[in-house]
Write a structure and sequence with these properties.
mainly alpha, globular, ARM-type_fold, ARM-like, 66% helix, 211 residues, Leucine-rich Repeat Variant
């Protein structure tokens, strides 16, 4: 009961960032409270209190470095688990990613957050789609840039935006919706002659599948 009251006050009161940093070490206790089904409303209160503390950058980094906290959070996030409503751990992940920290993203990805979040997004859990977008970060952009550099196209006078992205998607065989990427087949037809001299190999089988 005392924990419920304390978490409720923490969630509702306006606290300075300095004070949030000072009590950041209690975030592990709040994650544990998220696992408690009783009393009613405790999970929501604990989540709100945790989200409040995670508004501070140092607390976000502190939490993801705590392996036990991350493990508990992943168990709560697991679609197969019925410990709590998924909107609560989703809200915590979204709060961690609010600063778009690459180090936080990598730690959550390594813990398996992306796979869980993708399933929850498909099930339309509140906040899951936005949290998934933040977790995804610049993955595709990184693929495009790396492929661009490795291909040597920049030495041939091609522009990254017009060449590297479509080639990266085609050559890496990313399995996206055919309809969404039908424009790539048209783009290839227009630039086919120019592309024949490119250093990056084009998989014609993949291209044909979009036609």
């Amino acid at each position: 009961m005392l924990q419920h009251v304390s978490a409720s006050l923490l969630a509702k009161l306006s606290i300075s960032d300095d004070n949030k940093r000072a009590i950041g070490g209690r975030m592990g206790s709040l994650v544990k409270l998220m696992e408690s089904s009783k009393p009613d409303g405790l999970q929501e209160v604990a989540t709100n209190a945790l989200v409040s503390l995670l508004s501070v950058k140092s607390n976000r980094k502190y939490l993801v470095r705590d392996e036990k906290c991350v493990m508990r959070l992943m168990l709560l996030l697991d679609p197969k688990s019925e410990v709590t409503s998924k909107k609560f751990p989703v809200a915590v992940v979204a709060a961690i990613m609010s600063g778009r920290s690459q180090s936080c993203r990598k730690m959550l990805m390594a813990a398996g957050a992306y796979g869980h979040m993708r399933i929850l997004a498909e099930k339309e859990v509140v906040g899951a789609k936005k949290a998934l977008q933040k977790l995804s970060g610049n993955r595709l952009k990184s693929i495009f840039t790396r492929t661009w550099r490795e291909s040597g196209l920049h030495t041939r006078g091609f522009q990254l935006a017009s060449v590297a992205a479509p080639l990266a998607l085609l050559s890496l065989r990313l399995h996206f919706c055919r309809q969404d990427f039908r424009f790539m087949a048209t783009w290839y037809e227009v630039h086919e002659e120019k592309l024949r001299s490119c250093l990056l190999p084009i998989d014609r089988e993949v291209i044909s599948s979009f036609c």
